[in-house]
Design goal:
Number of strands: 34
CATH topology of one domain: TIM Barrel
Largest sheet: 8 strands, mixed
Shape: elongated
Bound molecules: phosphoenolpyruvate, magnesium ion
Number of helices: 36
CATH architecture of one domain: Alpha-Beta Barrel
């Protein structure tokens, strides 16, 4: 150890470290060195490297030999750079001692500020500042911090003494205490330290320094740091570096200031300094809200209509210097920076710079601007925007100013993003009626079912008491682009009475009645009382430019899940390249159709079913024509009927009586059929292609409708349509073979009847583990596979997608699962089945078309996986299409980076081997 370099100086334009040395210097140390290197004025200091920390722990918490003189030498350099001396009673150098691991562990380890103060040097600080009160305030803060962090005396001891002093002196606030008062308290603090520890507070600055360095190392094992490391997978052996840096003060007088600034506006992305500052203040004053900070720029001041002068006005020279510094840092890091600065007696110091956090809007415009400025490449720009954050740009959002005036009364899951206000309706019919009269409506339900579709469509937003992220409400709302908050368990519904109550923090019991105004924020999962203004999304300008780069980069196609021409149209605006899943059952709930659907289900025999299906045929043909037209010549995958039939029949007496009346049969007959259809596990029951094995005429009608619609458009309007007919829930090759034979026969019939020959594809969903495992056999009957990962997750994990919400939280909390597997694909479990099926399917048919249409098709992490296994496309709800486009592009870029990394490693190994030979 003694041979290695342990201490790295930075200051006065030179540094022994740089930004690449994060492992050794920690993130903070490496960054301070880098800033110094590029000529940014950083208070001088030095970093004791992480290897010293590991050595310290390996040697029973003893410092390595030779550290002593190295630290002394480095501190000597700091003294020269700052023109002050450590421990000098006339012109003392004070330092901060801070931790700094490889990755930031905010607030987890210890810090000591103002180190070097004692009864003598405090006099020097008075000389430097001309402010005894300031000096004694610094001194007492130091004794307090040192006493706590280094000597282990609990905070309340000092707080108690301050309170007692104020009482004695008849003063209310800390700011009322004078220099003499603080001086008295310093002595009291020292007395308390002696009393609690049996040791004296060390007056010797060197003793203070070594004790503080040891304390910072020791804080690597503080319980909070250990927990943080465990949660963030930070290895224990990394250790922390210690940064010792000269103190600078922004509160020494009117030529001093402190502030924070971004190099671009973090909410809009606009290029130019953006931030706040305070004259004669320290950082804490800003954080504690004791004083209101002022704007740095004049334009910021004008925007905020502030009567306080900006830094641009009060300190024009330093302002220009700061602007230049910001530009230099941005050029150097090629990223928007978030700076902390202090001005001491007219000199600007930068204390920190890091990548600035920003809104989605800003992230996108900054990425585009930086490409245009030649600062970064398009690939880098694409990787800098989190795909999920695009969501904020696609949906209306709540006006932030208006939002603060309103109160959140309940929270649930952010089931479908966007925001909306409306008058509350308690049933789908009521929502439809109200919306019909031009009123904005929020539909409130305990949970939704397919019967509520028309109400969901009519409403601006949906709230449910029960249900998870893939509940019916969530899936359908996302598909429709309606904001939805699901699973608001704290709401007590009284649907029949047209009201609900909720216990709300700050307001007690709140009652919301039919017609009251409610606002929902589906991106956050919040329900607010009253009406809040919203802002519309824009998809032109930077957004369009950025998305065009993503499109040029990605390999996979992005389709959408859409059931109506309106959804298809919306999806095309978002850039969908086809429909990957059209769920035909949603069309069955239309008021006109449901009667015929019920007639079909309640029919006693095949003849009765065929009669009812004949009524549905023209309606379905009309639907498909609409969708084909809307999608122009893009591919459209239509899934044949999937849900169990009982979902189409009401389960309450009133509803059943209405069905009986409409179909002119007895209520008894309806009830009997409902009983017959009842299943203990409908999700594993008579649904999907199993319906077609028992009632082939249903799929026959649907295939006929698809083919008639396609042939008509091809013949009459010159379309080029290749319909993709998809069979759900297949588990056996023979199952698919039987159904396929019937479908092909219908297709041939229609083509003969219409005199038009078109290509069509007949494929299957892979939704059951057996289907994935037997992909080689199933592929022989299929033109394509579409992975239905909602059901595949449900059936592989044996986890009900409708009920898991109630306990999944505990699974995620206890780390059994990292995330909800219905939101992000369980890559090591369900993913294995997908990978297997892809490989086996393509072994038999190398050109087998492969896609995914479960909810995971819109999840960026899952999209990365689908790229790796080589799917041809992903399909997701319309509003997720841009997210998927970007995620697919990022997946390509990350794949290429990974490949390059592997190649470099291989080349390195080869070289090493050659040398060995
Ligand atoms: C699926 O199971 O993934 C799927 C897309 O079908 P659905 O959600 O309609 O069951
Ligand atoms: Mg399914």
């Amino acid at each position: 150890m003694s041979e290695k370099k342990m201490v790295f100086f930075f200051g006065g334009g030179v540094a022994e470290g740089d930004v690449k040395m994060k492992d050794l210097l920690g993130g903070k140390g490496a960054n301070l060195a880098e800033m110094t290197r590029i000529g940014v004025p950083v208070p001088a200091g030095f970093t004791i490297c992480t290897e010293v920390c590991t050595d310290y722990f390996a040697n029973e918490r003893r410092f390595p030999a030779n550290l002593d003189w190295r630290v002394k030498a480095a501190l000597g350099q700091v003294e020269s750079a700052m023109d002050r001396r450590f421990g000098d009673p006339d012109n003392p150098l004070l330092v901060s001692v801070r931790s700094g691991a490889r990755v930031s562990m905010p607030g987890m380890m210890d810090t000591v500020l103002n180190l070097g103060l004692n009864d003598q040097t405090v006099q020097g600080l008075i000389l430097q500042s001309g402010k005894p009160r300031f000096a004694y305030d610094c001194y007492r803060r130091f004794v307090q911090m040192f006493g706590n962090v280094v000597m282990g005396v609990e905070h309340h001891n000092f707080e108690h003494l301050i309170e007692k002093a104020k009482e004695r002196l008849g003063k209310v606030n800390d700011v009322d205490l004078s220099a003499e008062d603080w001086m008295g308290l310093v002595a009291e603090f020292k007395g308390r330290i002696r009393q609690k520890t049996g040791r004296d507070f060390p007056e010797d600055p060197w003793e203070q320094l070594w004790a503080a360095v040891a304390a910072v190392f020791n804080s690597w094992y503080k319980p909070s740091a250990v927990t943080y490391r465990r949660l963030h997978d930070i290895p224990e052996h990394w250790g922390t570096a210690v940064n010792v840096q000269a103190m600078v003060f922004g509160n020494m007088g009117e030529d001093c200031a402190t502030g924070v600034a971004f190099t671009r506006d973090p909410s809009t992305g606009e290029n130019g300094l953006f931030g706040e500052y305070l004259i004669n203040a320290q950082g804490e004053d800003v954080v504690a809200g004791i004083r209101t900070p002022c704007q740095i720029t004049l334009s910021g001041r004008q925007k905020n209509q502030s009567d306080q002068p900006s830094m641009e006005e009060t300190m024009p020279r330093l302002y220009r210097e700061l602007v230049g510094m910001g530009q230099r840092l941005e050029q150097h890091y090629r990223e928007m920076q978030d700076l902390e600065f202090t001005i001491q007696n007219g000199k600007l110091w930068l204390l920190q710079t890091r990548t600035g956090k920003r809104s989605a809007q800003a992230a996108l415009s900054i990425a585009v601007a930086m490409v245009n400025e030649g600062l970064i490449s398009r690939d880098e720009a694409l990787l800098r925007v989190e795909p999920q954050t695009l969501d904020q740009l696609l949906h209306p959002t709540l006006d932030p100013e208006d939002r603060v005036k309103s109160q959140v009364i309940a929270t649930g899951l952010p089931a479908s993003p966007g925001a909306a206000s409306g008058q509350i309706a308690f049933s789908a019919d009521e929502a439809e009626q109200l919306a019909g009269s031009g009123v904005a409506v929020i539909l409130f339900r305990e949970e939704t079912s397919p019967e509520d579709i028309h109400g969901m469509h009519a409403a601006k937003g949906i709230v449910t008491v029960r249900g998870g992220m893939t509940s019916h409400a969530a899936v359908v709302a996302r598909g429709m682009g309606r904001p939805c908050v699901s699973g608001c368990g704290s709401i007590k519904p009284h649907i029949e009475e047209g009201r609900f109550t909720v216990e709300s923090a700050g307001r007690g019991l709140v009652e919301v009645k039919r017609g009251d105004w409610l606002t929902i924020d589906g991106s956050r999962g919040e329900v607010l009382l009253g009406r809040v203004k919203t802002r519309q999304a824009e998809m032109t300008g930077d957004f369009a430019t950025f998305m065009s780069w993503a499109d040029e980069t990605r390999r996979m196609r992005v389709r959408t899940n859409a059931d109506t021409p309106a959804d298809a149209k919306a999806a095309r605006l978002f850039g969908a390249e086809g429909i990957g899943l059209c769920r035909t059952e949603h069309m069955f709930f239309d008021a006109e159709r449901i009667v015929a659907v019920r007639e079909m289900i309640l029919a006693r025999d095949e003849a009765g079913r065929r009669k009812a299906l004949a009524k549905l045929l023209p309606m379905q043909r009309f639907d498909f024509e609409g969708i084909f037209r809307e999608m122009k010549n893009l591919p459209v995958t239509i899934r044949l009927l999937d849900p169990p039939l009982h979902e189409f029949i009401p389960h309450d007496h009133k509803g059943q009586a209405e069905v009986a009346a409409a179909l002119e049969i007895s209520e008894e007959d309806v009830r009997r059929r409902v009983d017959e259809l009842e299943e203990a596990n409908p999700m594993l029951g008579h649904r999907g292609c199993r319906l077609a094995i028992t009632y082939p005429e249903i799929y026959e009608m649907q295939v006929r409708a698809i083919m008639e619609a396609a042939c008509r458009l091809v013949k009459q309007d010159g379309f080029t349509i290749v319909p993709e007919i998809m069979i759900p829930l297949v588990g056996f090759r023979s199952e698919l073979a039987i159904i396929k034979k019937r479908c092909v026969a219908v297709c041939e019939e229609v083509m003969t009847e219409t005199g038009v020959r078109i290509d069509y594809l007949l494929g299957t969903m892979i939704e059951l583990p057996r289907a994935a495992l037997r992909a080689e056999q199933i592929a022989q009957e299929a033109d394509f596979f579409s992975f239905g990962t909602n059901d595949l997750t449900q059936t592989t994990l044996g986890l009900s997608r409708d009920d898991a919400g109630s306990f999944l939280g505990a699974y995620v909390e206890q780390n059994v699962l990292q995330q909800d597997p219905f939101v992000s694909l369980d890559q090591t479990g369900v993913g294995q089945l997908v990978e297997w099926a892809v490989k086996r399917g393509r072994d038999v048919k190398p050109k087998l078309k492969l896609g995914i249409c479960g909810e995971h098709g819109g999840d960026p992490a899952s999209i990365g996986f689908f790229e790796r296994v080589g799917l041809d496309y992903v399909s997701c709800s319309p509003f997720r299409v841009p997210i998927a486009r970007l995620a697919a592009a990022q997946a390509v870029l990350r794949g290429a980076m990974e490949k390059a990394r592997k190649k470099a490693k291989l080349d390195k190994n080869k070289k090493r081997k050659c040398k060995g030979d």
